[in-house]
Amino acid sequence: xxxxxxxxxxxxxxxxxxxxxxxxxxxxxxxxxxxxxxxxxxxxxxxxxxxxxxxxxxxxxxxxxxxxxxxxxxxxxxxxxxxxxxxxxxxxxxxxxxxxxxxxxxxxxxxxxxxxxxxxxxxxxxxxxxxxxxxxxxxxxxxxxxxxxxxxxxx
Length: 155
Hints:
The chain is an alpha/beta fold. It is built from three helices and seven strands; from the N terminus they run βααββββαββ. The protein has helices spanning about 10-40, 45-70, 120-125; strands spanning about 5, 70-75, 90-95, 95-100, 115, 135-140, 145-155. It is elongated, with a radius of gyration of 22 Å. The mean pLDDT is about 85.
């Protein structure tokens, strides 16, 4: 898994979700699985098979969240002088004003704004730029897009 950059808030949200899954949800499902197993014939026991399936899904989610935390770099936003991960950006994209956050997919859980990745064409074009500057990038549809950074602020 590649390294992802998260703000302390997003890192904490993922950590809280991991604790919730490990310490609250998983024990409930394990208990349900044990109760269903105690009922006897497992081949026709729908509750047992459902609990087993749910436990597999939870374990996959736990593994995924753990991997994200293990591969995360926590970057605290120090300044709004230039575009950086975790900041709210107001920009003019090909003549239309839009507000978004620059960050990884995990940021979507902590904001009401659209999130663009720092490795996306837009992210690469504006990362490190100051308010008032203009940049261009090539969109996935091969169209040249002009972006003017109007404002940079904390969420």
